Amino acid sequence: MQIPFSSSTSSSLGIEWELQLVDQQSRELRGEATAILDELRAKIGERDAAKAKHELFESTVEVITGVCGSVGEATADLAGTVSVLRDLAERRGIGLMCSGTHPISDYAGQRITDDNRYSRLVNQMQWLARRLLIFGVHVHVGVRSPDKAMPIVNALMAHIPHFLALSASSPFWLGGDTGLASSRSQVFASLPTAGLPYPLEDWPRFESFMETLITSGTIETIREVWWDIRPHPNFGTVELRICDGLPTLMEVGAVAALAQCLVDRMNTQIDRGYRLPMPQRWLVQENKWRAARYGLDAQILIDGRGEVRSVRDDLVDLVEDLLPVAHRLGCAEQLNDVLVILATGASYTRQRAAARQADGDLTRVVDTLLEEMNTGRPVVDQ
Question: Which is the most buried residue in 27, 129, 169, 192, by most CB within 10 A?
Answer without folding.
Answer: 169
